[in-house]
């Protein structure tokens, strides 16, 4: 493509509202533009890069016998009501009515639609197993869209669904797609981990894994072991119960109430009393499906709402508002404690709290706390469990090694759904004995547009992006210094023709611009190879530079030969 005629609106300054480096660089380099919060236009460079990623995804899905289709984004709401997810999905589900008053949703995912389709078309075990996938725009009304393509309200996703006769078949499909995902992310040049995960609103009856790109900008936390292969996201992460949670001499005295005016947080209480947060109890009030519940964890720990929700078997879980806190505790927020709650509620005690000898906690009275509070004596230990997040230094549940925490970007998620949706939608087939059975399903998603942002998060420097060859919008950035120099123009035009014939995608900067502008744009866009045709052509040489390499002075034919070698190796194959 000739850059003179291209739509690549680069910027000199970083947009003020762009937080993540991928957001900054993709806007600055003219890959994306925002239309509304969480809604972006993909400009030509962004679209080309997305097509490269889509090609990788398609190749690997078809390698495992996936068949591509395209399902409607507009879905009847009654499908979601039938599956039981209409209310569970919450405000992220975009809902609307047609002119006849029928309710629809804009698809955030397609479990209901694909199940309805297969129910209609497949009725015999002889037509199974089946693996169907699509690449399509999805819609989720995110509460706080941010970080450019990393968290959007409209985005491109690959979702796949497997249908099997039994759990063994599901295991084979799951493993095939699991390995395909490894190949996809490796080809995209990403440093990633596959981690155990929570199924969330998708649900299911079997295992589930998330694929995480390691990045400081990631909104997810990955817990992994230094000594073995164990890895899980923070919501799912398990750890061994610590022995000896002793926090001092055993308390023999009764709880002592003391005045703490305006002291509402653990940090304030630690400064006020000189007690370490590990010697305190934090009491959190939740509404689980609208009913209040109290959860207590140590002051230096954080509650894990996924674990709490699962223990309670709740569909929804949210922190209680001040009115509920006051009704349950008899005090203003900040003074709740596990002993002497004003209203009887279910009390969940984290197992580390249960091991404490004594602690400081809220007194359920505004401006007061208690000392010498003893678990089991001063409040019930009827419901004890793991209700907290893993922390650095906790011990691995598999090998007792030390756990570490890293940040990551979720790239994809694979689920063993079992019969969750086939039962809800009445989707059955006849087995070899002529008996009706529910389809055994799996679900496999990749955030395709998010992949672009994740690649940039891991591949950039102070000058711009650094695209891996397979995902680069173009492979070669050919730059001519002076359009008025007949020698430069002749060589540049010839190289442009020969490079394209070699199968390379070439962006030819033939703009009438200052060389400094061209070089800055080239570094910003970050294509794998840059070739500059300038004054050196008088001596028969051009500048050849890989994005992070040194400038090499080569004859034009030698530069072309190097590109030919890359093409012959299959790393610069044309994708258009």
From TrEMBL:
Domain Aminoacyl-transfer RNA synthetases class-II family profile: 38-468
EC class of the enzyme, as a word: ligase
Keyword Nucleotide-binding: yes
GO-annotated molecular function: aminoacyl-tRNA deacylase activity; ATP binding; catalytic activity, acting on a protein; proline-tRNA ligase activity; transferase activity
GO BP annotations, alphabetical order: prolyl-tRNA aminoacylation
GO cellular component: cytosol
Catalytic activity: tRNA(Pro) + L-proline + ATP = L-prolyl-tRNA(Pro) + AMP + diphosphate
InterPro entries with a match to the protein in the record: aa-tRNA-synt_IIb, aa-tRNA-synth_II, aa-tRNA-synth_II/BPL/LPL, Anticodon-bd, Anticodon-bd_dom_sf, Pro-tRNA-ligase_IIa, Pro-tRNA-synth_IIa_bac-type, Pro-tRNA-Synthase_IIa_type1
Pfam families: HGTP_anticodon, tRNA-synt_2b, tRNA_edit
Domain of life: Bacteria
Enzyme Commission designation: 6.1.1.15
Span list, region Disordered: 239-260
PROSITE patterns listed in its UniProt record: AA_TRNA_LIGASE_II (PS50862)
Compartment(s) of residence: Cytoplasm
Alphabetical keyword list: Aminoacyl-tRNA synthetase, ATP-binding, Cytoplasm, Ligase, Nucleotide-binding, Protein biosynthesis
UniProt keyword Protein biosynthesis present: yes
HAMAP family, per database record: Pro_tRNA_synth_type1
Family: Belongs to the class-II aminoacyl-tRNA synthetase family. ProS type 1 subfamily.
Binding partners and assembly: Homodimer.
Biological function: Catalyzes the attachment of proline to tRNA(Pro) in a two-step reaction: proline is first activated by ATP to form Pro-AMP and then transferred to the acceptor end of tRNA(Pro). As ProRS can inadvertently accommodate and process non-cognate amino acids such as alanine and cysteine, to avoid such errors it has two additional distinct editing activities against alanine. One activity is designated as 'pretransfer' editing and involves the tRNA(Pro)-independent hydrolysis of activated Ala-AMP.
UniProt comment concerning the protein's domains: Consists of three domains: the N-terminal catalytic domain, the editing domain and the C-terminal anticodon-binding domain.
Name of the protein described by the UniProt record: Proline--tRNA ligase
Species whose genome carries this gene: Paenibacillus nasutitermitis
